[in-house]
Amino acid sequence: MDYTIFAVATFIVALLVFGGVFLIRPRRSEPPQQQPRQEEQATADSGTAVAEPTETESAEEPAEGSGAVAEAEPATPATAEPAAPEVETPPPSAGRMVRLRSRLARSQNVLGRGLLNLLASDKLDDDTWEEIEDTLVTADVGVESATAIVENLRTKVKVLGSRTQDDVRQLLREELLTQIDPNADRAVRTRAETDRPAVIMVVGVNGTGKTTTAGKLARVLVGDGRSAVLGAADTFRAAAVDQLETWGNRVGAPVVRKDEGADPGSVAFDAVARATEDGADTVIIDTAGRLHTKTGLMDELGKVKRVVEKKSDVDEVLLVLDATTGQNGLRQAQVFSEVVNITGIVLTKLDGTAKGGIVLQVQRELGVPVKLVGLGEGADDLAPFDPETFVDAILDGE
């Protein structure tokens, strides 16, 4: 009895154990690739594929060929290095005025032809000679120079007697050259006698082309194989400083500058020091455009010169005059000559006026030669003044 009960109990326990193992055994999971296939199908239907990053792929860089679209970080714009200005090689100064003669001839043709026609007239009476003198005065030759020219011509015509066109032209040519003085020293001192850079100050009122002249002069020097340093001492006008730096960059001439409103004497002094350190041939100092009616500003110009002279002698003081201003330009020259020792005149815009007689008048009044002339707006239109080329351009035309 007991044995039977024990057997039945054992059977029941075994049955329960076997059935429990079967019931609690976990169901076999789906193949790992099945779920991704379902997601891929779902995203394909929507037209957008989403890829999870792997160990070798970042979330910002989707796998190649997966078709995944990911938002990338905005690219940092590259900062381009500013291009260095191209350094130009200007032509030499020799022969510039000859090459620019046609421009001068066009502007001076009225003066030359008018004089030649009057002198070649059949009757050279007092009225004709007076008209000749008026023509000269109108051309800004000046009363004293015009009177001297007429008196000398009257004497020569009376002595020679002949008044052919060639004779008249030759007489007038000789007289104009005498008044201009072809033997005057017109060389710009761009090299000092001692072992130091030559110092050139460029002065004049605003509007005459002063800063442009300083830049063009640097081109002349570089074209002649010299080295130059520019001093931007016109510290009252930022535009003038930038303009001068542009001229310097074009020919590789260093420019010494300071902030707007800085002491111009300090800039000029530093420019001379820089030229000395670099072993440059010449330093060109562009000064502020002084109004000749302002005594204080003129005094300051004298101060700039004195400050420079603490470092070096000043070899040239070039006064820039606008040839079209006539008598006003002459008054400017007189005032400037009282403040600083003017050594030479630069006449700009000489191609834009028929009043080229200012060349004669300014030399007669100041005893200072015209050394440079501006015959156009081009970078290389500043030329050493040549009296014979000037007179021939007046008389011959094109």
Number of strands: 8
Sketch the topology as an H/E string, one letter per element.
HHHHHHHEHEHEHEHEHEHEEH
Helix content percent band: 40-55%
Terminal CA distance: 154 Å
How many helices in DSSP terms? 14
Beta fraction of the residues? 5-15%
Q: What is the CATH superfamily classification of the domain at 198-342?
A: P-loop containing nucleotide triphosphate hydrolases
CATH class category name of the domain at 198-342: Alpha Beta
Strand order of the largest sheet: 3-2-4-1-5-6-7-8
Radius of gyration: 44 Å
In round numbers, the mean pLDDT is 79
| CATH architecture assignment of the domain at 198-342 | 3-Layer(aba) Sandwich
Global morphology:
elongated
Uncertain segments are 21-74
EC number: 3.6.5.4
InterPro entries: AAA+_ATPase, P-loop_NTPase, Signal_recog_particl_SRP54_hlx, SR_rcpt_FtsY, SRP/SRP_N, SRP54_GTPase_dom, SRP54_N_sf
Enzyme class: hydrolase
Binding site for GTP: 204-211, 286-290, 348-351
Describe it.
This protein is α/β, with parallel strands linked by helices. Among the domains are: 96-180, Four Helix Bundle (Hemerythrin (Met), subunit A) (Up-down Bundle), CATH 1.20.120.140; 198-342, Rossmann fold (3-Layer(aba) Sandwich), CATH 3.40.50.300. It contains 14 helices and eight strands. Helix 6 (143-160) packs antiparallel against helix 7. It is elongated and about 175 Å long. The N and C termini lie far apart (154 Å). 36% of the residues are buried.
